[in-house]
Amino acid sequence: MITSERTTEARGSGAYADVNGINLYYETYGTGRPLIMLHGGLGSGETFAPIIPILTGADHQVIAPDLQGHGRTADIDRPIDVRLMADDIGALIKHLKLEKPDLLGYSLGGGVAFFTAVKYPELVNRLVMVSANIRRDAIPAEMLAQQGQVSAAAAESLKDTPIYEVYRRVAPRPEDFPRLLDKIGESMARDFDFSDEVRGLRVPTMIVCADADMAPPSHYVDVFKLLDGGLRDGGWMGEGRPKGGHALAVLPGLTHYNLGESPLLAQVALAFIDGPST
């Protein structure tokens, strides 16, 4: 079931879809080839508001869901897990009858987009995976220590931040904020290594990071190597490039925290998803 929410020039058309056991909120902007954009942890589809006009202006229909427990999508009784949320996005693609949309996911959303491509390659055209680590040990120890402090106990201290203000304004149950923090903290505490899944990707993928990201640029180079990238000279005609059409972009002057709203991200994403077929 889809129920119309609203349509405004500033926010696009909002709706809910009952898919995979969750009432998933999403907003749609523009017309053209579909591009699903997935936000980071403690964010919402609003993350991408500064760059959506660039993408819609290039003849892409942007679909921006709010992931489980984020934004206008209420939480359900399961962990925050990128592999489970990937099933939500696969179900949404089928529900909306989209023909092989492109996926762009940032941070937590990058992991969700990645596993959507891993589990449902037949549904996805191209993948742009932004600031998403594939191994927990790629994150510096000091950042892991900060992540270890994310729990319901931190809710009160976050109530003066923009993160909470957006959540309080749009969440169906604002009182669930401490629960979301607990789930995000538990998710970040779990060890993971998705190297094998990267090697098995069957969807053309661009790895994107900031030059001052949460993990060092060398981690994202390692991910690119798993995709057969950066292992040889590319050749005069590109004959040495990765056989799957994969690419790597390290964006200068940015961090993990402002990359998702940077026009530079929009530009490199468009160059990749509108590039020649492999």
Which helices and strands appear, and what pairs or packs with what?
Elements: E1 2-8, E2 12-19, E3 22-29, E4 33-38, H1 52-56, E5 60-66, H2 82-95, E6 102-106, H3 108-119, E7 127-130, H4 141-147, H5 162-170, H6 177-189, H7 195-199, E8 205-212, H8 217-226, E9 247-255, H9 263-273
What would you call the quaternary organization? single chain
Strand portion: 15-25%
Segments where pLDDT lies below 50 for 5+ residues? 1-10
Radius of gyration: 18 Å
Count of the domains: 1
Mean pLDDT: 94
- Within CATH, the superfamily carries the name Alpha/Beta hydrolase fold, catalytic domain
Q: At the first level of CATH, what is the class? A: Alpha Beta
Coarse morphology: globular
Distance between the termini: 36 Å
The class by helix and strand makeup works out as alpha/beta
How many helices? The count is: 9
CATH architecture group name: 3-Layer(aba) Sandwich
CATH topology: Rossmann fold
Q: What is the string of helix and strand elements? A: EEEEHEHEHEHHHHEHEH
- The level of helicity is 25-40%
The profile of the biggest β sheet is: 9 strands, mixed
How many strand units?
9
| Order of neighbouring strands in the sheet with most strands | 1-2-3-5-4-6-7-8-9
Structural notes for this entry:
By secondary structure, this protein is α/β, with parallel strands linked by helices. It has one domain (2-273): Alpha/Beta hydrolase fold, catalytic domain (Rossmann fold, 3-Layer(aba) Sandwich). It is built from 9 helices and 9 strands. It has helices at residues 52-56, 82-95, 108-119, 141-147, 162-170, 177-189, 195-199, 217-226, 263-273; strands at 2-8, 12-19, 22-29, 33-38, 60-66, 102-106, 127-130, 205-212, 247-255. Strands 1-2-3-5-4-6-7-8-9 form a 9-stranded mixed beta sheet, with helices on both faces. Helix 2 crosses helix 3 (108-119). The longest helix is centred in the N-terminal third of the chain and has 14 residues, at 82-95. The radius of gyration is 18 Å and the shape is globular. The termini are far apart. Residues 1-10 have low confidence and may be disordered.
